[in-house]
Amino acid sequence: DAMVIQNPRYQVTQFGKPVTLSCSQTLNHNVMYWYQQKSSQAPKLLFHYYDKDFNNEADTPDNFQSRRPNTSFCFLDIRSPGLGDAAMYLCATSRDMADPTQYFGPGTRLTVL
Amino acid sequence: RKEVEQDPGPFNVPEGATVAFNCTYSNSASQSFFWYRQDCRKEPKLLMSVYSSGNEDGRFTAQLNRASQYISLLIRDSKLSDSATYLCVVNSGAGSYQLTFGKGTKLSVIP
Question: When comparing pLDDT for A57 and B94, which is higher?
Answer without folding.
Answer: A57
